[in-house]
Amino acid sequence: MASERTVIVFFAGNEVGGAATHVATWAEALRHAQVHSRYRFVSLGDGPLAERLRRMGMLSGQVTGTAGAVRGLTAAIRQERAWILHSHGPRMNILASFAASRAGVIWTATIHSHPRYDFEGHRLKAALFPRLHLWRLAHARGLFVVQPALADVLPCRTILEVPNAFRPRPAQLAREDAARLWRDRLGLGPQARLVGIVARLDPVKQIDVAIRAVARLREMDVHLLVAGDGRDRARLQSEADACGAADRVHFLGHLDEVAELYAALELHVLPSKSEGSPFSILEAGYYGAANIGADVPGIRRMLRDGEAGLLVPPGDHDALADAMRRMLMDRGLCAAYVERFQTLVLPNYTPERMVVAYERGYTVLEEDALRSGWKLPIDGVREEVSR
User: Rounded distance, CA 38 to CA 140, Å?
Assistant: First the structure.
């Protein structure tokens, strides 16, 4: 086998949320890791994620458009003499599949969420893009998943697991001070109890379930802090008005830094109908907030079947309200869940584990390709004998 493989990592420059954190954490870890591969990160257009990698010195190039992206990727593969093209995100996966086919290289992708829900809330896109995405995924040499349950819906024989990773940055304030800071910002009294969600405002997150749950806790001075933005914001604000909780639901918009917010929360809730491997749960647990999540595969696995956080049926606001009430009335229970989370969960989601998983996965994909007749590039010449 050749001495060093080149991998082109393709992502959307304007990506936000969990997939963006995954790519950025991986890129940062690679700056200090000793690996077999040479990595080149290429973005589709500009945006927060592209800028983040640019500041790290890890952004190698950009492509634009649709046809232009396929041409640009193909040219980058040939210029870099890459063996592997690795994409992130449904649209990037579709484009990368065509570029890899043109260039005759191994194509893989990381699947961060259930393909069925990627375009929920967009009627036309939801009808078309999931099918197109799944059709192209069938052309991958293999696929990485951030949690095993995603493999059940993917049209690919080789499935490789890679953990999300969290690189902790200590909060600048103690938890009591952070809570006081946020109460003051929102004009709340000293007895207000703070629970929160950090997520894009998207139908799949089911934030309306959390809003209705807070509305049920009328006997408690509970406030829901929602950090994030998205197309669902107007509907969620209307939901808060309709259930009489507008004065207890606070939409904070996008926050560049969330450490102090997590540190201020007693509880972090995530009522999503589907999740891959949510960073928000990792971050909340690290900063000391107890987690309550919907009982869906990605959350159930991260909370160790309820050992490291409470699980509630997805879509059930009454069950979520009961779980929140139980936790808020028992600070010792909250503390026990946080301790178990930090002991049992966090060590499994380190950047070093992510880097190792990708490197091992590439070796598996190469060996599989070689068995099927694909030849490694020699002196810049690439040959696809059979597929």
Answer: 21
